[in-house]
Amino acid sequence: MQKMIDEIKEKCAALIKNGEASRVIGWEKGELPYDRTPAVFDGEKAVGRLLYDAFCGANISKYLIAASKTGGKVIALLKPCDTYSLNQLLTENRVDRSGVYALGVGCSGMVDVEKIRDKGIKGIKDIEEIDGKLSIKTLYGDRTCDKSEVLLEKCLSCKGEKFAVSDDSVALLEGETAPSPSDRFSAVSRIEKMSPKERFEFWRGELSRCIRCNACRNACPACSCMTCVFDNARSGVSSKASPDAFEENMFHIIRAFHVAGRCTDCGECSRVCPQRIPLHLLNRKFIKDINEFYGEYQAGEQPYQRGPLVDYNVSDRDPGQV
Amino acid sequence: MQVKEDFKPTIVAFCCNWCSYAGADLAGSSRLSYPANVKIIRVPCSCRVNPLFILRAFQRGADGVIICGCHPGDCHYISGNYYTRRRMALLISMLEYLGVEKGRVRVEWVSAAEGAKFASVMESFAKTICDLGENVKLGDLRCKK
Amino acid sequence: MLKITLDKISELLSEINKTHCVYAPVERSGEVCFDKWSEGEKVRLDVLKTSKSAKGVFFPQTEDIARFRSKGKELEISQAKTEGGPFVIFGVRACDVKSFEILDSVFLSDPVDSFYKARRENALIVAIACSKPEETCFCKTFSIDPAGPSGDVEGYTANGALYFEPRTEKGKNFCASIARLLEEGDEGAVRAEKEKIRGIMADLPFSSLTTKGWGKDEGNRKFNSEKWKELSDACIGCGACTFTCPTCQCYDVRDFDNGREVIRYRCWDSCMYNDFTMMAHGTPRKTRVERFRQRFMHKLCYHPENHGGVFSCVGCGRCIEKCPMSINIVKVMRAIGGEEI
After folding, report:
1. Which domain holds residue C157?
2. Mean pLDDT over residues C46-51, rounded?
């Protein structure tokens, strides 16, 4: 994927040069070899600092809510999964389409550094991707591993190479493909098959780790309310305390409900959680239910499509029916 | 599960103003009895009910929550209860997914003329909740008496 | 120097548990954090950085302060009791120990926070040196030595055993009380371990990071840097950094009305939130840039100014690991530290 960056920089520079756009939102190098921070590259010269490789997991579509309205077009580097988020934001009129130039960038899967650490590979000094293998230099010896073993959770259910919306795109190089997706509802089905007691214990175990940092809410492209219900002091819920089990449960049930039908399954919630709670399992349960009850639906596949929770069919099933 | 002999469940019923609340009224004026521990909250339409209300009811001590609306197709606001249907179907499925006992949240369609149905629905729901026992999973220790 | 083989740690904690509560790095649903240790639980001394820092032991995320109940025209106020007696916190790292000192300088200065003080006085700290520092560590920048964590008792893992060296009177008494489980150990092994750790520290990616350009006299200059806007662009204002940081100490005081009484509690707050210190007119820092700048200015300029040059960062590197958008204090220090404004 690293070699794509030349084509990306070329296209961005050309667009800025001929005045079609004024800046780019993409990723730049962080302080460590696997750190990539989303950043705005203002002007042709700044484009030289753009970076794109297997560590650019962040979904930058949410920044477009503000960026598309500050004047001048902004070029957004969107991976295929990110384009669904952009479509959903367009559907909800949160992003001004005329302020965005969607440059799709092909993706062969993004690496989760936590998974590398899980393998016992610690003290990473340098990391390089060569032909699907990661070559890692650490303080405690050199290691290698397959990239496919340490992909982000969202990459395990890759939606494919298609861009849901794009003004132009930079395809993957020869020989590179998107990761092959596994059944994205298998974990949900496994939980559904547990007994109610096991299910409750599973979720209590997971949600009790929640520190109410709100990273999931702030990273989620579907959570873009100007004032979140949890920030409203009069709502009787606190946005930052986890005084007891009820509050821990409630925040996540309600947030999942608020994004139900609008969640594109971009996986940012699980990626950003500092406590590594598998939040995507809540959102995927809603998606699975919606698919089953009301027909297959993928949020963000088309812009301006009517979501399942703001739509109805007179022959819908009654609630509580199996 | 061991249920206390004298357990009186607290049930919150969200009733839509035009059909089910009128139905409750009719049950009352027809002198049909239904459990006294059902607390009715009148809402303009069943789709006014936010999942947050349901969770808050559980937090504050409810053992069961029932949402009553007009029959689909008869909503005073034309399509409100269609949205209720979708919303509540997903909520009930999600609560089950989290391990909360199935049956604590129910949706029933009761029209203004169905006083008897209202009473029998409340009786049956109260019995279900009695069998399920006190709400512990969705309770809030700070609100416990 | 006394030692105990690593496979007997559970036995040791069992013994301590008879008289004192033990807080240690334990696994909770797959993540390791400091929590009450219970019999038979495995202590994860192999994990360098716990997901949540150890500050929660002294400064819990939520804590009841008082309860108000009205009886007619009378108002009954009852203060929450601080629970528990003396306890042992086992397995903290050098950065965590230093963070307690920083929290002390805030909570134990006038007016003294009685809840915090009670817990702090009840605590016995058994610190452990870091055998395997990671690439995200930069405690050296803040003059913290991972090979000399301090605390009441310093622990070192070497040759499959944990060596103890008491540093305070409390620590000496503690070692004496568990002496029957310990055996004599070779001081040479500990010396070698310390050398090894210091060697690894020199090899870390951030070993050359200094606090040059930051400190108590740099406040006004650094405040006006134009780089703050660029640095804060990617920040989503979530609060993950503040909640995982061992030295962040802001809290909010809230009321919860349960229908019969009002429970006043305090909970961690984050200066990154847009409702932080919300007042009648609004918030003092209305933009994300201002809030972002405030957090780092606090850590690198304001705290040193108010507390004799001590920085409010311990270089643990949790913010580096946990920030969703890979923003961290190292980035800020490097970007603005060398600037001549």
Report:
1. 2-61+83-203
2. 90
